[in-house]
Structure formats: C-alpha cells, structure tokens
Write a structure and sequence with these properties.
With about 300 residues, the chain is mainly α. It contains eleven helices and no strands. The N and C termini lie close together (about 5 Å).
Amino acid sequence: MAAFIIRRLMWLPVVLFVVSVITLFLGLVIPGNPVQIMLGLKANPETVARITHEYGLDQPFYQQYINYISNALQGNFGYGLVKYRDQPVGTIIAERLPVTLQLNFLALIVGSLIGIPLGLIAGLNRNSILDYLIRNVSLIALATPLLFLLPFLSFIFSRRHDFGISLGNVQLSIGPFLPMVGGRWDGIFSTKIVLPVFIESLGFIAVLARQMRAGMIEVLGQDYVRTARAKGLRERIVLVRHAMRNALIPIATILGLSLGGLVEGSFLVILALTLLVAVTYVFANMFIDFLYPFLDPRIRRPG
C-alpha cells in the first residue's frame, strides 16, 4: 500500500503539468481577447494593445506558460480580467471558494442521505409503483434546469421570509444568500441555506438514486447472493453484507468525482481553479482506491 501511495503522489506533478498546459493552451486559442471583453468592443485599440502587453498576453505561448508557473509557485496566480477586474486571483479564490465548498459539501451530504436510500428502495422493489415513481422523479430532476428551479421555488417560498430568495437578488453567485461567508459555519444551521442546498442537491439525489437502483438490481442477480440465500442467511444479512457493499462501489466513485467545484469567471481564475480541482481529483481518486478493498474484499493490491 505504501508503494501505491508513493506511485500516485509521483504522478501528481505530471497531472498538474498536463492540466495546466492544456488549460492555458485552450484559453489562448479560443476566439476573443479577454482585454477586449474587459474594455468593451468600442475601446481604443491602443489601450487594448497596451493592457494586453502589460498582462503579457502578446507573448509566445511557452513564455506565457513559464511566467505563469513561476508566479504560481510564489502564490501569485495573476489578476482577474473580466468579472473580477484587477483583483488578485488568489484573493478571489480565498473569498469565493469557502462558500462554494460549504454549499457543495452540504448538498453532497443531503444528496447521499436521500439518493442512496431511494435507489435502494427502488432496487428492492423493481418494477413496482414505488420504483416507477422514484425513477420518473429522478429523471425529471436531472432534466430540469437549475435556472428554472431557482426562480420557481423562490416564488413558491417567497411568502416565507426565512426560506425565500428575493428574485431581485438572484445573481450568478450564491454568496449573498449564505451567511457562511468568511468561515461562519454557524450558517449551516440557518434556514436561509435550505433552498440553495436543496436545489444543489437535486442532481446528486437523482444520479445517486438511479445508480444505486441499477447497482442493487445487478448485484441481486449475482451467484454469490443466490448462494448466500441458499445457505439460509437472513435477508437482512444478505442485503447489507453481500448486496449493498458491492452496489456501493460505483456510488463511491461518483462521490469521489463529485468533489470538484464549480468553475466560472475570468480565464486566470479558471486556470487557477482548474489546477486546484485537478489536485482535488487526484487525492479523491486515491482515497476511493483505498476504499474499494473495504467495500469489495476481492479487490486487493499486493504490498
């Protein structure tokens, strides 16, 4: 196991290098100039050229990459160009990332606590009315855009001040709705977070419910489950010890991949967050790989 950890950690610099090169390259080859977007289409060309030179966007790709990596190693990820104009990217991430992580963390917990049991119920009652209901509701939750759900549910709960979100305050950022900004974890218990967390968790609930249902149906048809029942084991032991543990393997993978955050904003912010998300995915996948042998003893690694 120690050798496995060392090998995975040795791959981390390679992953970060590939991700940073691809992200920076895609950001440079797509049409449009971020400086032009910042100043507007009617901006003076001389001003656009001067600011482009100040940010080093007129340099060759390899030079831009070297400059960015050398600055990033010193904790300087550049400055925002569009939405967060002239603000250090590190400051932007420090202000916005805690809110995003808190919201996603709570949504993931709620989605797991609701979605996994729903999938288990649907899998154990295959082709029943309850199964059809859970499947259809999950499909609707996956197909409904969040931009529709937010104003719709806000309108429904608008009469309740504690739960409602004023439509006039709806923005791309959810920060104004959450009292947890700045690490105020007491906001977790605030009623104002109920609606954002519920909306964010709908996707998790739908995906986990459908995957858990499919996993349970597949596992219940395996030979080892039929053998356990033939030996006279109680149904509860068969389901918990043999069926659920194996059905949870793809669920663990989904939860690991769900640890990434939402990315939006200017190009340099996207690049910095992409590197952060890449590190998160590497360690999340490593943790899930450690978890697999506990869920399925057949998965063992020498050493």
